[in-house]
């Protein structure tokens, strides 16, 4: 697919400090908007960190045991750490569909379908941000997060999926402001998935994801910081 050939696919093997990744992603966003760099799909993991979105409430930071970084994305507090695969997307919507909600919907579908490749049934939930599944106790639990920012119709940030993180680290925050549901992972569900396996399955669905980035309707600039 010619379009996919114009996108850099990057895999980070070690842990990438969050601030370093944020700086690089911000620079790449500007370069893509200026037409001086290829788009980017960057798959990586971070050392333990809490990140605050533009809607983060101070009382939702319960125990700041790790570094807390203002992320600039939409949404509230979230956690990143080893065992959680993060996908940063620097994509130019100016040459696709200028539709933020449609973009978020497409990213969610990409993650949900990839989880299905590993036997995990996952879904969106009305009024609750993120990707949901049944936890080990049978109740609904969050297995993935979505956070997006758009500058000059070029995207930043993206998604995270819990492969095998230390789930106790989520207790330092109210994840995405949702108190009534737990957090789970593939490992907690008895499914062992290496980062390389996840990346391979996800990227096998990249063309289908890009094909969804067609007009969904008119979206205002004011919606650019959706969680």
Word description of this protein:
This protein has 227 residues and is of the alpha/beta class. The chain has one domain: BirA Bifunctional Protein, domain 2. The protein has five helices and eleven strands. The strands form two sheets. Strands 1, 2, 6, 7, 8, 9, 10 and 11 form an eight-stranded mixed β-sheet that branches. Strands 4-3-5 form a three-stranded mixed β-sheet, with no helix packed on it. β7 (123-125) and β8 (128-134) form a beta hairpin. It is globular, with a radius of gyration of 16 Å. The model is unreliable at 216-227 (pLDDT under 50).
Please tally the β strands and state the result. 11
Helical amount: 10-25%
- Span between termini: 30 Å
CATH domain topology: BirA Bifunctional Protein, domain 2
Count of individual helical segments: 5
Tell me the β content.
25-35%
What does the secondary structure layout of this molecule look like, with pairings?
Elements: H1 2-5, E1 7-15, H2 18-34, E2 39-45, E3 49-52, E4 68-70, E5 77-80, E6 84-90, H3 100-117, E7 123-125, E8 128-134, E9 140-151, E10 154-162, E11 182-183, H4 195-203, H5 206-211
Parallel strand pairs: 1-2, 3-4, 9-11
Antiparallel strand pairs: 2-6, 3-5, 6-10, 7-8, 8-9, 9-10
Task: Give structural attributes.
227 residues; alpha/beta; BirA Bifunctional Protein, domain 2; eight-stranded mixed β-sheet; three-stranded mixed β-sheet; 5 helices; 11 strands; 24% helix; globular
Q: How would you summarize what this structure contains?
A:
By secondary structure, the chain is an alpha/beta fold. It has helices at residues 2-5, 18-34, 100-117, 195-203, 206-211, and strands at residues 7-15, 39-45, 49-52, 68-70, 77-80, 84-90, 123-125, 128-134, 140-151, 154-162, 182-183.
